[in-house]
Amino acid sequence: MFNRQITQRIAFILISLTALLVILPIFAILGYIVAEGIGAISWEFLTSMPRNGMKEGGLLPAIVGTLLLTLGTGMIAVPIGVGAAIYLSEYAGDTTLTRAIRIAIINLAGIPSVVFGLFGLGLFVIFLRFGTSILAGSLTLGIMTLPVIISTAEEALRAVPQEFRLVSTSLGGTRWQTIRRVVLPQALPGIITGIILGLERAAGETAPILFTVAAFFLPRLPSSMLDQTMALPYHLFVISTQVPGMPVRIQYGTALVLLVFVLSMNVLATLIRRHYRKQRVW
């Protein structure tokens, strides 16, 4: 008994140290970015146009462009991703087709983002003649986001107990009624998690938008989905590598704004997920 307690305590200490080793670098990075970038944050920095070669002014076009790209990605990827997850989880059996689809999803998740960018350039920008536009960028990011949404949504649907489906069917519900009124509400927290994870990745990507939508310097807001736009990830890359004499505080201020944008999505997802988890009956 004494040896078991010692072993348990040692294991607990090792696990705690491992968790600390994971958490400390994260807080160190966050703290450094906040310390270096907080001096650049002001109302003008967030709401004005860039000027003087982006060394002065603000980030409004980049913030709006990132928001539009994220919304466009969600409008494209969420219906297709959740629909595919419902098909794979609730309708498809273990067939050659479904196995091929799952293999394709796994392969799609492993493709580097720069390849998605080249694909979007060839298909949406050149072949379909959308040009370098928000539409082309959203379609490219939507395809890149699909594997995350499909995989997490399918797992969330499969986690709903089979008894729920059996009871609904025994009461006369059709398969679609069971899915819509029983399975989806119970799986919604997991589905929302997958959607936010996918959209967060899309919001922070640089390579796909580099080929399909992002402008180097565009001090105006887009007026349609066929316009170019600035975006925070590409803007951060540009001012960090392509603009000589760029003040460091502006670089870290831009990084801080992007970080807050992504973390805000996380907080929103957490609140929504907590709300729906309270309504679950299992």
Question: What does the model show?
Answer:
- The protein is mainly alpha-helical and 282 residues long.
- It has 11 helices and 2 strands, in the order ααββααααααααα.
- It has helices at 2-37, 43-47, 60-91, 96-109, 113-127, 134-159, 162-170, 175-204, 207-212, 232-241, 248-278, and strands spanning 50-51, 56-57.
- The protein has a two-stranded antiparallel ribbon.
- Strand 1 (50-51) and strand 2 form a beta hairpin.
- Helix 3 (60-91) runs antiparallel to helix 8 (175-204), helix 6 crosses helix 8 and helix 8 (175-204) packs antiparallel against helix 11.
- The two termini are 36 Å apart.
Concise synopsis of the structure shown:
The chain is mainly α and 282 residues long. It has helices spanning 2-37, 43-47, 60-91, 96-109, 113-127, 134-159, 162-170, 175-204, 207-212, 232-241, 248-278, and strands spanning 50-51, 56-57.
Question: How are the SSEs ordered, and which strands pair?
Answer:
Blueprint: H1 2-37, H2 43-47, E1 50-51, E2 56-57, H3 60-91, H4 96-109, H5 113-127, H6 134-159, H7 162-170, H8 175-204, H9 207-212, H10 232-241, H11 248-278
Antiparallel strand pairs: 1-2
Helix pairs in contact: 1-11, 3-6, 3-8, 4-6, 5-6, 6-8, 7-8, 8-11, 10-11
In spatial order, strands of the major sheet run 1-2
CATH class label: Mainly Alpha
Q: How many separate domains make up the residues?
A: 1
Task: Work out the helicity level.
Answer: over 70%
Largest sheet: 2 strands, antiparallel
CATH topology: MetI-like fold
Strand elements, count: 2
CATH superfamily: MetI-like
What is the approximate shape?
A: globular
Helix/strand/pairing class, anyone?
mainly alpha
